[in-house]
């Protein structure tokens, strides 16, 4: 029966009297009720109770009441508000359902009580109480709620540590959540490196509590054989420890009664420790130890990843500074050489046409190398797309031609990438080929056309590297017969031959087919991109 029930559904005094007059049947009905039942009059004297009430008193080691005994004599531990509840029901005639937590003989018992008024006419003359022991149910509900809260906090912790970008931020994010799950006066995350140094990554504590551990205590944590074997350590009651270690003595003098040490292990490596302490004995129950152990796994991995990320970022920054310095010096040196050659060409009036042409070719070669250095610097010395490299080198090489003698270029797109070492050799090779086209093709006609095909072919077997092929064509007079047989060639072709053979470890083939055809093939380099 719930609060607000109409008086017609509430038992009347006459009904109770009629039932009681049946004798045995009345006792059977009352005692068949599973819930604890008792009835009190206006003075709160017991007038009736059932077998369940009697059994409950026996469990609580309370003597069986005598009919007419006062309710508070039987249950002296009842709070005063219960007296007020009964008084309210006698006045209002309204059913009342309440939950109470009682401490009886050192036990915490939670009850649900429904107080139902019994009427004689319009007046409440007695109240029937139905009591149900809901301790187990409430404990299950509380445990379920705590578990749900624990899961939410652990999920929040995982998100927090994954979002942190430094070991210190990871540790601090973890501690703020750990203290929500585990009662402790102080929580620390310690980091242990390969040099046996121990540092505090993060700390949280209550008011007026030191946030650190001294160096001796930190070193002692990681020196024990059990902790190095990745086993959880702790003391339930420091007061009972007869021979305390220096760390334990220092903690005891601070007021610590119990502490817990959980190793932080990532991929089999001890990276640190989670330290918790409390000013009460036996604080860290099995459930709390399980939580700390569960947290330690993700915390250790996150700290290790954050530290590796930090080290990688620092290494990348140092590498970038060094590369920038090297690139700057190489660029300046190449520009200095070009400047010297150009100054010599301008100022020395005795230089003949042959020497002047040689200086011009040297200048273009060095400019090509400078362009390769610029592109590699922009790519942080990673692999370069060969078609972009070829386009830039041809553009530089064409500076020597007159605008009245146009050269058209066709370089089909190709997804072929070359290493820095290959890029330097190919830049010189392409420059010499373009220079050869300018020298011979434009001498015979007013226009020239260059086509450069770039392909990459897989190796004949899975163990073999793929091969890069360059086919350079122009529409000039082609190669002389002795050059085709590689029996005679000028300085430019000599340079190309040596670069292909020794730098690229490849093969060079010359042919004539509507102009000069130069075919170069080499295995894709396996050397580092840096």
Can you walk through the features of this model?
This protein is α+β, with helices and mostly antiparallel strands and 530 residues long. The protein contains 16 helices and 17 strands. The chain has a five-stranded antiparallel β-sheet with strand order 2-1-5-4-3, sandwiched between helices. A five-stranded antiparallel β-sheet has the order 7-6-10-9-8. A hairpin with a 2-residue loop joins strand 9 and strand 10.
State mean pLDDT (0 to 100 scale): 82
β-strand number = 17
Strand order of the largest sheet: 2-1-5-4-3
Note poorly predicted spans: 1-10, 526-530
Indicate the proportion of strand residues. 15-25%
Distance between the termini: 83 Å
Helix-strand layout with pairing:
Elements: H1 13-20, H2 24-32, E1 36-41, E2 46-49, H3 51-59, H4 71-74, H5 80-92, E3 96-104, E4 107-120, E5 123-133, H6 135-163, H7 167-181, E6 186-192, E7 198-205, H8 215-223, H9 225-228, E8 233-235, H10 246-253, E9 258-266, E10 269-278, H11 286-347, H12 353-378, E11 384-385, H13 386-397, E12 407-410, E13 417-418, H14 420-444, E14 448-457, E15 467-474, H15 481-484, H16 491-503, E16 507-512, E17 516-523
In short:
By secondary structure, the protein is an alpha+beta fold.
């Amino acid at each position: 029966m719930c609060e607000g029930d109409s008086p017609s559904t509430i038992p009347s005094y006459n009904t109770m009297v009629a039932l009681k007059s049946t004798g045995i049947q009345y006792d059977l009905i009352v005692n068949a009720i599973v819930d604890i039942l008792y009835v009190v009059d206006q003075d709160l004297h017991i007038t009736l109770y059932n077998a369940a009430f009697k059994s409950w008193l026996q469990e609580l080691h309370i003597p069986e009441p005598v009919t007419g005994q006062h309710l508070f004599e039987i249950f002296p531990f009842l709070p005063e508000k219960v007296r007020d509840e009964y008084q309210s029901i006698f006045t209002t005639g309204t059913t009342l359902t309440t939950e109470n937590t009682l401490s009886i003989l050192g036990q915490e018992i939670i009850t649900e009580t429904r107080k139902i008024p019994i009427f004689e006419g319009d007046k409440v003359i007695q109240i029937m109480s139905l009591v149900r022991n809901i301790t187990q149910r409430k404990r299950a509900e509380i445990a379920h709620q705590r578990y749900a809260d624990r899961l939410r906090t652990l999920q929040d912790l995982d998100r927090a540590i994954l979002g942190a970008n430094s070991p210190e931020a990871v540790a601090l994010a973890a501690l703020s959540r750990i203290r929500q799950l585990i009662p402790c006066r102080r929580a620390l995350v310690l980091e242990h490196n390969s040099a046996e140094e121990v540092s505090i990554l993060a700390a949280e504590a209550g008011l007026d509590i030191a946030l650190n551990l001294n160096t001796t205590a930190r070193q002692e944590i990681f020196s024990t054989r059990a902790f190095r074997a990745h086993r959880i350590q702790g003391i339930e009651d420091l007061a009972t420890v007869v021979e305390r270690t220096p760390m334990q003595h220092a903690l005891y003098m601070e007021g610590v009664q119990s502490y817990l040490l959980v190793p932080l292990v990532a991929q089999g490596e001890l990276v640190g420790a989670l330290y918790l302490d409390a000013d009460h004995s036996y604080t860290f129950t099995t459930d709390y130890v399980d939580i700390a152990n569960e947290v330690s796994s993700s915390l250790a991995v996150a700290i290790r990843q954050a530290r590796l990320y930090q080290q990688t970022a620092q290494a990348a920054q140092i590498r970038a500074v060094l590369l920038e310095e090297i690139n700057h010096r190489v660029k300046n040196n190449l520009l200095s050489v070009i400047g010297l050659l150009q100054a010599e060409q301008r100022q020395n009036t005795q230089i003949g046409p042959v020497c002047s042409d040689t200086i011009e070719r040297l200048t273009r070669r060095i400019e090509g190398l400078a362009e390769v250095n610029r592109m590699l610097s922009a790519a942080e010395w990673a692999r370069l797309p060969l078609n972009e490299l070829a386009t830039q080198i041809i553009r530089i090489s064409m500076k020597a031609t007159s605008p009245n003698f146009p050269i058209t270029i066709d370089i089909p797109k190709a997804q072929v990438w070359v290493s820095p070492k290959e890029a330097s050799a190919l830049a010189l090779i392409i420059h010499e080929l373009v220079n050869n086209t300018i020298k011979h093709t434009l001498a015979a006609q007013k226009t020239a056309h260059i086509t450069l095909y770039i392909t990459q072919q897989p190796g004949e077997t899975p163990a073999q590297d793929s091969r890069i092929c360059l086919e350079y064509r122009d529409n000039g007079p082609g190669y002389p017969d002795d050059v085709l047989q590689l029996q005679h060639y000028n300085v430019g072709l000599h340079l190309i031959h040596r670069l292909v053979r020794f730098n690229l470890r490849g093969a060079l083939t010359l042919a004539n087919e509507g102009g000069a055809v130069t075919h170069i093939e080499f295995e894709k380099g396996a050397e580092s991109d840096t």
